[in-house]
Specification:
The protein is built from 8 helices and 13 strands. By secondary structure, it is an alpha/beta fold. It has one domain: Metallo-dependent phosphatases (Purple Acid Phosphatase, chain A, domain 2), CATH 3.60.21. Strand 4 and strand 5 form a beta hairpin. The longest helix has 15 residues.
Length: about 280
Amino acid sequence: MAVFAIGDIQGCYQEFRSLLRKMKFRDDCDTLWITGDLVNRGHDSLSTLRYVSAMGPSAITVLGNHDLHLLAMAAGLRSAGKGEKDLRKVLKAKDCDVLMEWLRRRPLIHHDEELGYTLVHAGLSPAWTIKKALKQAGKVEKVLTSDKINRLLKKMYGNKPDQWSAELGKTDRWRYTINSCTRMRFCYADGSLDLEQKGPPDAGGPGLKPWFDVTRSHQGLRIVFGHWSALGLFIRPDVISLDSGCVWGRSLSGVRLEPEGVVQQWSAPCAGVSS
């Protein structure tokens, strides 16, 4: 019985299946954590969604920014862009409604106190303790599963507010929560988010640091995340970054989190995904 974690799949279905075989993953007894962004840019987002949703409780995936964008498209709030033909296939599928119902019920954060790891797509706001993070994520998750979902999906786009405050209005709290959990890479020393920079950690610009290198209220957590392909596979005691850029022609990466003390790495080379 083992717990594995893998990075952003983004529709790279064949690489995903190859990585599971390399891991010798057994869905009858093992658990798979996925850092979100199941869809977009790869060749087969539809098969990826179908496969992961059929895995039931053996797969735990958090929502990524591309997953939320797909939900907005399915609700008719966004149109498919030039590079989103793979998402159009999902929207045209006969089981699209079933898949979207499953997707909107995925969490923003998965925290396993016993295992000692926290799973999120991009990161956790430096201003939050894990208790605060779970509370704010839970509020967004509740709306995503309610009849107010379209209001949230319509309001989630934008880079402001970039700092947390208890005085924020409801929609600003939603947006801040989504941005910190699904879009964040860099922060300033005061914890404010920068959502423009996408390069490697040393390319953030004056005053910017990777979010995990600023003073954090949740210091001491072990956080598993993806989203940052320019960072790539990066492992240290408090963070494990797993987006190694499969969709950009590199590889899909995974680690084993349990049994305790064992961290093994696998990778499935890209089979030729176009950007």
